[in-house]
Design goal:
The protein is mainly α and 501 residues long. The protein has 22 helices and 2 strands. A two-stranded parallel ribbon has the order 1-2.
Length: 501
């Protein structure tokens, strides 16, 4: 049931898009063509930048010794705390009226923002792949006289390729799904085309058709990521869990490595954070963001609890039944792979069908909030399943069998055995879900009740009106709220390799 709830909006989008054409401008029209071309370009450019930055940073901190390596190891993840639209607003302000020598705008500006903000996806996946490599293979290459650069290209990189591909697929899914930054830079992508077909052309059917194309593209990225993850287990060895050999870089390469890491952190977090903080202090109206902040907290907390309950149900079912569990995991992942705008369109279409059937009335405040929570659950349940599933992995089969032998039913085992053991993972999942919902823009923009602004909506509204000074305060709050789960995630990654100093 939990999987059905999460997958229903995505399935509805595809089903409704296959209806006979009603004369919309979607398929075969300029809007779909331009959106597909724009999405392909920005995904290629932004994704390539994210791969280069993330893979290089992961290799440096995993296999090299240079000044500041231990600090950069966790600081490099911080840019993940900021949504792409927040970085877009910050860099537009930084380069406004020639304040910086290079103006960040258009396609190349969006590619830069995506690359500098989403490289941590590749960094985390590549770092995990480097950390799980065989120490024997690296030591053998080193003993044969291979230089660090040659070891990277001919040994470490091929072994880490599946992990890098997985991180690249995740980053590209985020780029294809993003609406706020693409709209801010004036790009026509499939995400912005959904809104344009609906609002500018007044065509809900056309928007659903474009959303279906975007959903199918996201599913392709998901399949690539899953297959890459499935191949990521090779390259082990008898000494796999020995500390990896690290190369001591000479002074000049070491300084260059430190400078590279500093640049990633500075451009991805420090510079935009400092700029937003300065604008918020000088020009921000804190009274104007109080109600959006309260609304954001209420929506995020309630949405996180609902999504956490569904994610826990999916994780438990996946553990107890391999066949049904695998289907449940893919159903949840389908929602996570889809952009928020697509899931919102699916939920809205299902509510419209229910209203036409006379089952519900108009989409008032209560039903709008229900649709919004449903969208959050469908969109982010997979993000909650992963840490919960990792926590449940510590539960031995013997313990579960003992509880069953003593007469405990499924619900009692869940409450008395499974959830207490997975308690820390549940807390981490709840925090991650809270921040993910706090940052969500397109779904909230579509489904929120009238005059119910959140921090994301407020920042978007100000930026859309070219009021970047007023957009600084809500954007800064979103940025700061994302730091806590990023720090927790980094601490977990740091302990991921046994025996590593």
């Amino acid at each position: 049931m939990a999987t059905l709830i999460c997958a229903a909006p995505a399935v509805a989008v595809i089903t409704l898009a296959l209806r006979p054409d009603q004369g919309d401008v979607a398929f075969g029209g300029d809007l779909l063509r331009d959106g597909a071309i724009g999405t392909a370009l920005v995904v290629a450019l932004g994704g390539a930048g994210a791969v280069v930055f993330g893979a290089m940073a992961a290799w440096l901190v995993s296999l090299c010794r240079f000044p500041g390596r231990g600090v950069f190891e966790w600081l490099l993840v911080i840019p993940l705390a900021a949504p792409s639209y927040v970085l877009a607003y910050a860099y537009t302000g930084i380069t406004w009226h020639g304040a910086a020598p290079i103006e960040v705008r258009g396609l190349w500006g969006a590619a830069f923002v995506y690359a500098i903000g989403l490289y941590p996806y590749v960094y985390l996946a590549a770092r995990a792949a480097f950390a799980s490599q065989s120490a024997c293979a690296l030591e053998a290459a080193r003993s044969l006289g291979a230089s660090p650069w040659r070891v990277f290209w001919e040994v470490a990189l091929p072994l880490a390729r599946p992990g890098i591909a997985a991180g690249a697929a995740l980053a590209m899914m985020e780029i294809a799904a993003d609406y706020g930054a693409a709209y801010h830079f004036g790009l026509t992508t499939l995400s912005t085309a959904v809104f344009r077909a609906w609002y500018a052309h007044g065509s809900l059917d056309g928007a659903l058709q474009i959303a279906a194309v975007l959903l199918l593209a996201a599913i392709v990225f998901l399949i690539v990521e899953r297959r890459a993850r499935g191949r990521a287990a090779f390259g082990g060895g008898s000494s796999r869990w020995r500390p990896l050999p690290r190369y001591q870089l000479s002074p000049l390469p070491g300084l260059l490595a430190s400078g590279f890491c500093v640049a990633l952190i500075a451009f991805g977090a420090v510079l935009p954070l400092a700029w937003l903080g300065r604008l918020a202090l000088l020009h921000g109206d804190l009274g104007d963001v109080v109600q959006p902040f309260v609304n954001s907290v209420i929506l995020s907390a309630a949405g996180a609890l609902i999504t956490l309950a569904l994610a826990a149900a999916i994780a438990v079912s996946a553990r107890r039944s391999k066949s049904i569990g695998k289907l449940s995991l893919y159903g949840a992942a389908m929602g996570y792979a889809a952009p928020g705008a697509v899931i919102a369109m699916g939920a809205l279409a299902l509510f419209s069908i229910a209203r036409e059937a006379g089952w519900i009335g108009g989409l008032g405040t209560a039903l709008a909030l229900a649709a919004l929570f449903w969208t959050y659950a469908a969109r982010f349940s997979a993000a909650g399943v992963q840490p919960i599933d990792a926590g449940l992995a510590r539960l031995s089969k013997g313990l579960d069998a003992s509880a069953r032998t003593l007469g405990a039913g499924p619900w009692r085992r869940l409450i008395a055995v499974d959830l207490p053991i997975a308690g820390p993972s549940l807390a981490a999942a709840a925090l991650i879900l809270f921040v993910e919902i706090l940052k969500e823009l397109p779904a909230t923009l579509i489904l929120r009740p009238f005059d119910f602004d959140t921090l994301a909506v407020k920042a978007y509204s100000y930026a859309s009106d070219e009021r970047l000074l007023q957009a600084a305060a809500p954007a800064l709050l979103i940025f700061l709220a994302g730091l806590a789960p990023i720090i927790i995630l980094t601490r977990g990654i740091a302990r991921a390799r046994a025996g590593q100093a």
